[in-house]
Amino acid sequence: MAHAIWSGAINFGLVTIPVKLFTAIRSSDLSFNMLHEKDEGRIKYERVCSVDGKEVPWDEIVKGYEFEKGQYVTLRDEDFDRVSPEITQTCNILEFVDLAHINPMFFDKPYYLEPTKTGRHAYALFREALASSNRVAIARVVMRSKEYIAAVKPIGEALVLQMMHWADEIVETSTLDLPTEEQLPQPEMKMAKMLIDTMTVEAFEPAKFKNVYREELMKIIDARIAGKELPMPAKKAVSREKVVNLMDVLAASLEEKKKEAGAAAPAAKTSTRRRKSSAA
């Protein structure tokens, strides 16, 4: 059973909903240690001073802010305590906004909110009210002595607390060299839309996408554990030809997708006939 990483309450108006916070995502990345190749000894990282070259114990280390190149101002624990937000164990709702009006770039890590026994009715009411109005709640929440801005939104039967970036953390697109006055011929646009149409699906099914890199890496790891070596795959030639005509590329892509769709259709029909035969 999952363990709550935070317990508190959602507050909006005079309504209080006691909740617990649970991690909503888990990483599938493989973890590796750095080893000495000769004897597989673990590599240690020491805290060495760049001035005297000696190792520094933790009790002699302070945090420094570099305000100019090579110039630091140091801060101590009491400085951080002075500005630490009050630990209130509450998720204070500040306002509500239509989900469509929030730039997706602002959303960060999500967490599940689970009600306590006494908060189940208020939780369900709040969830359904948000869902029916297609709005999300913008809130301030303090976790581990750090203040965040977050969105509370319904996803299925759950309420999700999704951490958000502060406005000054988002890099403006004005810093990029983007095509803004590009001439787009209608035939190219029509062909591009047709290609999009042929690749459009009715619903997003994330389970059909596999982490191929992780799976292949695990095959190598399992083989090494078993004392085997997998053969190296042949390297694919990388085409470095320049795109001469965008219309030709779009047309070729469209034709390829039509062939793929045509090849998939007989298989689908065969599967349907098998189900009918089984039902009979």
Gyration radius from CA atoms, angstroms: 28 Å
State the total count of DSSP E strands: 9
Proportion in β-strands: 25-35%
CATH topology group of one domain: Ku70, Chain: A, Domain 2
Number of helical runs?
5
Helix share of residues?
25-40%
The low-confidence parts are none
Identify the strand order in the major beta sheet: 1-2-6-9-8-7-5
Shape: extended
CATH class call of one domain:
Mainly Beta
| Order of helical and strand elements | EEEEHEEHEEEHHH
Distance between the termini: 44 Å
Taking the sheet with the most strands, its summary is: 7 strands, mixed, barrel
CATH architecture label of one domain: Beta Barrel
Averaging pLDDT over every residue, what do you get? 84
Going by helix content, strand content and strand pairing, the class is alpha+beta
Walk me through this protein's architecture.
It is built from 5 helices and 9 strands. With 280 residues, the chain is an alpha+beta fold. The protein has a domain at 6-25 and 84-169: Ku70, Chain: A, Domain 2, CATH 2.40.290.10. The strands form 2 sheets. It has a 7-stranded mixed β-barrel. It has a two-stranded antiparallel sheet with strand order 3-4. α3 (186-198) runs parallel beside α5 (246-279). The protein is extended, with a radius of gyration of 28 Å. The model has no long low-confidence stretch (mean pLDDT 84).
